[in-house]
Design goal:
Elements (H helix, E strand, L loop, with lengths): L4 E5 L4 E5 L5 H13 L6 H15 L5 E5 L12 E5 L2 E6 L11 H10 L9 H5 L7
Parallel strand pairs: 1-4
Antiparallel strand pairs: 1-2, 2-3, 4-5
Amino acid sequence: MGNRAVITDNKQRIGIYLHWNGGRDSVEAFLKYCELRQFRTDDYGMARLTQVITNYMGGGLSVGVGPLDELDTDNYDNGTYVIDNWKIIDRLHFEGSEQNAYDFIKLLHKINNAQPEADRLEKEVIDNVQVPLF
């Protein structure tokens, strides 16, 4: 049981497996946070995305990284998000309804507060973000 998802880039070589927080509302917030931090969008960016997610989730077995063909992409929950430039551009193995359980701005603040203090965004930056319409 979980709220599983995989996030991969548009080259679909590597992926980030999420056992929890795989709903679109969470994934959109993780991506927006990386965009606001102006992280690169290449393999280094995927590493930063992983760092942001693991800082938020804390210890445990909630996140994995690996070759896409070795991850649970058809996971019966949220499937696989394909991203480019911190936006979801495709969705694989998903036929359900989108999760919209979290307030976007509040979740961005929680993600921000989970990061090392020196790396956090200013509160005003997050408060001025436009909420995406799924």
